[in-house]
Amino acid sequence: LGLPLVLLRIVDLTEILRDIRVDHPTIDATIDQSVWDDSRRDVEATANRHLSALASPLEASGLRVLTRVATGSPAQGILDAVESTDLIVMTSHGRAGLSRWLIGSVADKLIREAPAPVLLVRSA
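Now predict its structure.
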């Protein structure tokens, strides 16, 4: 249809905190704003590089590809980005039972709340 394929990556709080712990293993519970900002930028840059690597072969095959990185809750970030005329295609970790209940399911939230259809693909 000539429509762009949007590769969207939502960076969440746990990824930024993990990056802080790797770079600053002795940091205490209070995190300086500059440390937080540096780690957020690092994680977002890594996400951008990853999306660019995914986009390259798609673009080479003639598709128009846009990449976007946002920070926040994965489910809410996707909901904020999607329109009713879109199709959401995503992989799912396939969590079930107690782990799904404890940490929630992005896929479940999207299936219930997205204004567009959701196509789930099992993660390898």
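The helical segments are 13-23, 33-60, 74-81, 97-103, 106-113.
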